[in-house]
Structure formats: C-alpha cells, structure tokens
Amino acid sequence: MRVGQRPSIGQINLNDCARIRGLTHTGTTPNRNSIPSPTRLTFFPEFSENQIPSTPRRRIVSLPLHLERQHSPGSPSEQTGSPKFVLQPARFTPRQNESTSSSPTTISSLTITRPTSALFNTAASIPIVKPLASTQSTMFSENPRAVPLFRGDYGDKEEPTEWFAQFELSLPGSWGDDKRLDCFEMQLAPGQIAEEWFQDVTPTRTITFAGLKAAFWKRWPPPKRPKYMWVQQKERIMVELLEENDIGLWTAGNYGHAVWATKVSCLAMGMGDIEGHLIEYVIEGIPNLLKDHLKCDYNSWDEFVEDVQSVPSVKIKRGCEDLDKERARYVDIARLKAQSTPSMASLQHQFSQMSASAQRPNTYRMPPRMPALSNLPIMPVNSTGNTYPFPVTPTPAINNLISAAPTRGGFSARGTPFACAQLTRVQILEKLSLMPQRANTEMGVRQYEADVELWHRTHGTEGFPTIERPYPL
Q1: Cβ–Cβ contacts within 10 Å for residue 117, how many?
Q2: In this structure, which of 87, 351, 413, 440 has its CB flanked by the most CB atoms within 10 Å?
Q3: Contact (Cβ atoms closer than 8 angstroms) between residue 271 and residue 228
C-alpha cells in the first residue's frame, strides 16, 4: 500500500480503477456510487486503518456483463451439459478519447477485455479479400525467333529441309498464312537462288503456307539415306580402328575405348545393323590389350558396349605395364644385334678374301739348281790342310739325300696342298689382331658361337684353318 493511500474496505470504485490503470488526470473523477452487484469485486478483505495486509496485492480480474449474468446464482448456464468457461488473466485495453480529456471516465472505457470462448464469440469474422482475377496476358512474343537467312545453294553445310523445319518452328502459332509467307520472304538471302525461286512461284498463283511447303520440298527434296550393302558395311566398320594409345586414356568424360565403342555402335546401327552382325569384324581390329578382357560372341551392340565399358581400368593398366616391359626387351635385343652387325660384316669380308685366296692354284718354288754332292770330286786333305790333287771317292750320306730334294709346298693332313707363307712375327700378330676377340659374357658367348657357325658354313666342316683364314677365338 502506498503512503497516504486509504486502506481498502473491500470495494473498488471508478477512481481506484483509474489510478491502477494510470488513467487519472489532473482533475479528479466525480465520485459515483459503487458498482452494484454482480460487478462488485470482493477479492480484497477488509482491514482496519492500523492493520497492514499480510496477503500480496492481486491482479484485478473482471468478467464481461453477459458472462457475469451467466455465472450469477440461478443462471441457466449451470445446467447439465452447458459449456464451462475457464478464467484467464485479463488484459487492460483503455479506450479513453484523447480529444476529450476532461470528460468523465465511462464504464465502457474501464471495462477489462479478455479472450472468451469461441462458443460465445459474437465478433464478426474478418472478411477475406479475394484477389482480383488477373487478366489473361497475351502470348509471350508475337515475333518469330531468329533463323539464319536461307540461300538455297547447299553452301556452307546448308541443309534446306532442316532450315525449313527450324523456320516453321520459329513462327508463332497464332499467325496466319499471310504473315507466314511474308516472314518466309524476309528470311531469303537477297540475290540468291532461293529468292529467285520464290519470286517465280508466288506471282503465278495464290499460294498458302502448306502449298509453299510442298513446293519447297519439291525444289529442295529431303536427302535420302544411303543404303549400304553388306560388304560396304563391313568395310566401313573395319576402318574405325581403336588405337592402342586410346585404351585406358580418360578423354571427353570417359575412357577412350568406351568412347570408341559407342561411336562404332552408332555407326553400325545407323547403317541398319540392329542385330549386331558386324560385331565380330569389330573385335578383329581391337588390340590384344583390350581383346583379352572381352568375350567372343555378343547378341547386340548394347551388350558389346556395356562389356567394353565394364573392363576394369586396373587390368588395363597392368596390361600396359606388361606390354611396355616386353617392348623394352625387344629394343634391347635389337640394340645388341645392331652392335654385332659390323663385326659380322668384317668377318664375312675376311672369310670371302680367304676363300678367294684358297681357290687360287698353289705356286711351287724350285730351289736354285746346285750340283749334287755325289757328282763333285772329293779332294783329300792332308795334315797340312792342302788338298790332294787326286780324286777321292765320296762317301754317301743320308743328309745329302734330304738336302738334295727340291723344296715345294706342304700338304695338309688330308692331302690337300697348301702354300707355306713366309711371314714375320710382326705380320702374324697384325693378322691375329684383326680377328675379333669376344668377351667372356653371355653376349660374347653367343657372338662366338655365331662366328664359329659362320666359319664352318663358309669353309665347310672339314676346312683347315690357316693364317689367311684363322679359326675364331
């Protein structure tokens, strides 16, 4: 209770309500009689002047008049089956007019409004504003879409039938024949074949757009699809080869072999091979890197394309690695053969020279003729070293017989004569240095075996080595 405030005696008048709601003005509200029952509220007990209320101040709650009548004793709302009203906290909504501040406060301005049950809500429903019906707009555009000018000479990859189809689709559906014909005339390139043809057609007779279309197709007939024979289809499909470098290469959003399979299938079905009879010829041209992962028989092109696309990239990558290793091995073998080729050529040249020298006849050199020792008189020598004048009969010796024999060429072990060349040690070493010396390695052993085989093939298995044709070392 505020200081100076008069203690409540259990009744509330209009001035008290105005003070509580903050609506009291400078002037005092005229005192009126207390509100008669049933609006009299007795929520506050009566206290004496010196007694302080022990209960806290409560919020003032009031009911509308029609609800007070219903809840008053003897009200018909207490009958069985009638709906019950649940009290809720009130909300103060003052409605005092600001323009008449000096006017006395009315009962209606101090009435506390609160939400009521929907059963007793008599307020008018909010009217639903219906949207105005929008007027139907016209067509989006009465102008045709842009189409390139038509020349009619089949130049620059121009296809007349395709152009006319695009032109017809660009026209609005609401146009008549006159507008369509005028638009067609404006789409013709000036001074070209199409404009001359249109000028020759229109003056002769009245033409409609359907007649124009028929005349256009007669002047520029649609292209006919070529019909290929079986041999031609086979040749065209076998030309589309799959490069080995495209296998497993990611291009155009897919692997190269998958793109190739789709392209070949479209080509074959475009020629009329729907059953897939040309698949076997396509498989023949596929590299082994991909062919090893495919089947040999397919019933349709879709099955073939699906099988090509389903090959794992890991297998293709592994096959590429094995193929690279095999090619590297072939390169090494070719390089070793290239290194041994010059030595083989020199050996062949030497062997050819040896064979040419062996084919020449052997020349026999006769020693200088000297008198035989048996024919010469032997003069005896005395103790003083002087020769006796009388002849002495010589004693035959075995060495004299050997020295008296003529010197000729030697004979081989098989009876073939060969010439004994008189060479110095330096010349012999020079000839030996020309012979290739093979290293004691696996490659050297192979080259040595090749040299031996070449020597026997040139001189025969019973040939005899000489200085001119030495045996390989």
Answers
A1: 11
A2: 351
A3: yes
Mean of the pLDDT values across residues 149-165?
Answer: 93
3-state secondary structure the chain: CCCCCCCCCCCCCHHHHHHHHCCCCCCCCCCCCCCCCCCCCCCCCCCCCCCCCCCCCCCCCCCCHHHHHHHCCCCHHHCCCCCCCCCCCCECCCCCCHHHCCCCCCCCCCCCECCCCCCCCCCCCCCCCCCCCCCCCCCCCCCCCCCCCECCCCCCCCCHHHHHHHHHHHCCCCCCHHHHHHHHHHCECCCCHHHHHHHHHCCCCCCCHHHHHHHHHHHCCCCCCCCCCHHHHHHHHHHCCCCHHHCCCEECCEEHHHHHHHHHHHHHHHCCCCCCCCHHHHHHCCCHHHHCCCCCCCCCHHHHHHHHHCCCHHHHHHHHHHHHHHHHHHHHHHHHHHHHHHHHHHHHHHHHHHHHHHHCCCCCCCCCCCCCCCCCCECCECCCCCECCCCECCCCCHHHHHHHCCCCCEECCCCCEECCCCCCHHHHHHHHHHCCCCCCCHHHHHHHHHHHHHHHHHHCCCCCCCCCCCCCC
Q: Is the model's pLDDT at 108 over the cut of 50?
A: no
pLDDT band at 52 (very low <50, low <70, confident <90, very high): low
179 pLDDT exceeds 60? yes
Residue-wise pLDDT tens digits, 6-45: 555 556 666 776 676 654 444 444 444 444 444 444 444 5
**Cα–Cα–Cα angle for 78, 84, 89, rounded to 5 degrees:** 125
Contacts of residue 258, Cβ cutoff 8 Å, sequence gap at least 6? 305, 308, 309
Structure confidence at residue 286 (pLDDT):
92
